[in-house]
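Reviewer 2 asked us to include a model.

Predict the structure of this chain.
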Amino acid sequence: MEHIVWNADPILLSFGSVQVYWYGALFATAILSGFGVMNKIYKFENKPIQQLETLQFYIIIGIVVGARLGHCLFYDPSYYLDNPLKIFYVWEGGLASHGGGMGAIIATFFYAKKSKVSFLYLLDRLAIPTALFAFFVRMGNLMNSEIIGNVTNVSWAFIFSRVDELPRHPAQLYEAISYLSIFIMLSLIYLYTQKSKNSGFLFGVFLLSVFVARFLIEFVKVPQAMYENISFMSTGQMLSIPFLLMAVWLIVSSKKRMKN
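Predicted model (structure tokens):
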């Protein structure tokens, strides 16, 4: 059976000793596209753009710090506890989406408290561009041939030749497609239904759809944490459970918070 051979060069451009990586370019695209969507939302709702610029700063710090600490503490804690200074070596790689998500939520909470803006209002709107952000990040993972899937014989399997010559599930592509679909779904709900008036509903749907997708895709992913071989669930699945519980609570209770 023929499979898709994936041998993408992770380097997008080279200028002498300076190299631009696909992952970095797509991560930057993720941030810019996400804030572009938020810009349109603020204009659509006649909100001051100046407030958005401050929020952007908070969220970038929250994502980077949270994603790095999440990787260090969730996926290889023993190494980083033995080598704490390595936590700051971001250029060596290692960012966890769960940690980035938590960092963004915490940063948004502090911004909302300081600016006296509804925390759930912000999370509902941020859910839309965050799904798009996640799409670009996973495409960056694909270009790096990382976060690969288990060996399989399905016709659409990828052979990540930079890793080995075995046909595998393109797990990062599964996630990317899921997140892009969630972005489209949330955008349609926001534009064409009254559900956005139910405070917390959009954010709840975002969490539910993202982490259901993440939980299911984890079944075909190569374990990322050093200790996953001793657990019946992957680290990604265990970390998804609190988000799923929060999602159910937000959706069920959102009607009580409907705007008058």
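Residues 4-257 form one domain. The two ends are 59 Å apart (CA to CA). We have added this to the supplementary material.
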